[in-house]
Amino acid sequence: xxxxxxxxxxADGRTLRVFESGAVDGPIVVFLxxxxxxxxxxxxxxxxxxxxxxxxxxxxxxxxxxxSRLPGRVVAHAAEDVAAIVDHFGAExxxxxxxxGGGPHALACAALLGDRIVGxxxxxGSAPMDxxxxxxxxxxxxxxxxxxxxxxxxxxxxxAHLREQADNELLGTPEEMREGMASxxxxxxxxxxxDELAEYLTAHFREAVEHGVDGWTDESLSDYQPWGFELEEIxxxxxxxxxxxxxxxxxxxxxxxxxxxxxxxARILPDQGHISLITGRTPDAHAWLAERLAA
Length: 295
Prior knowledge:
alpha/beta; 17% strand; eight-stranded mixed β-sheet; globular; 11 helices; Rossmann fold; 42% helix
């Protein structure tokens, strides 16, 4: 097993903080974190990947944690950064996995990196806001739905809103986190958000925004504009997981993606929410990716 941190200098002058964990010589899975978030992985996720012989690479997306900001970025930019990371580690072919806000970024890799991607898993990921026939906020909790109207007022207004949200709702006690996220937590997710998980998430979010919320603001704005690629470009195998009780990213997103990703293996689960699905089904996604990489 390995657990190392790297700082990768990119050709455009930016720096990415990259985390390497899991099996030392295993095939690579690049994990794309949620929004907001950073690349530091939960110990249970690392242990599960290591037991399956997977080598995990994750990173702080631009503006989060210790990675340089990339103003005006769109979802598609993730593919360039992931390719640079994997090139640094000397791998030609690899898999990607994204949870929540990382889902679109994993799909960007599947669409834009061609046959380098042997498999892509996405858990509770969002669909594009301009998706034809999709009611983007249907079934969404107020905390996330309200952000859209705030984002329409521009960077500065959204930035101030997210700074206040970070201070008041993300960085408190477990109970303060539950209270702040109340509109997003279906009963199954409230149960899944244990004190241990809430404490991990608090530390994770704190690390993500320790240098400010510019990256979070950039990323939220990118959610509400075209992603920079078409789902029809995806040729790699994709496994999609979504819970019908999800209020963070409602199940309509999962169903829309399932109808538009070529050949997708879609798992829509009636008894799962957002947090419960990500924490409970990550081992299943690891197992599926391990099979793709072994083949």
